[in-house]
Design brief:
The protein is mainly alpha-helical and about 250 residues long. The chain is built from nine helices and no strands.
Length: about 250
Amino acid sequence: MPTRRYALTAGILYFVTHITSVVAADLYLPTLADPMAAAGTQDAAVHVGAMLEVVLAAAIIGTSVALYPVLKRLAPGMALAYVALRLLEATVVLTGVVAILGVLGAGEFAPVFASLNAMAFTVGPGLICPINTVVIAIVLWRTGLVARWIPALGLVGAPVVFASNVAIMTGVYEQTHPLALVAAVPIFAWEISLAVTLVARGFRPLPASAEFDVVGDRGALTAAVDEVGAIDGDLAGVLAQRGEDRVGVVAER
């Protein structure tokens, strides 16, 4: 099975997710810092950031769709779970987009929409992303499609960033706290390493058991057809013999 195209597409989309998320977060900073000042305005930075996050959501889904044809041959259940989780993550990201746009027209309720955007960031990239990271990292670790140190980064980084975002949700520290930034380093390294590998080298060869053996399948199909034909021939012979026997019995009577 040719996997290079799928790997290249997924790798590029991983890069797109990083670029769009970082730039959008930077564009949102002034609005989130003082939502009341942005209320009632048409802040161009917010609109650009929102568009970037729409692209981000599409790229999040795209990574899972690009990887699915490869992963389903090795772990179909896990491959489907990864697609579902990435779709859920993208949905939460889009919820954050609606919230940040709501800040501009919410008037006195602007801080509420700003808080909703912050929570969408915490739940989507902060909690759902680590879960889907564990799913795909397990598949990559078991199959050896990439060097094992790459999924190892994901398996280490995902629980760390998950715990960090739980701490943020429960008020232990803010999203901008140094601990939150440090906790994000391993999972950031995982995604960048995976993206670079997929773009530069692609997957390692699939296990032989995962390959689709066209010749073997055709041979098996031909043998099955021949066997059915032989059975039909035997059955026809038996029926013909029974017919002759019945004719003989009638003649004797």
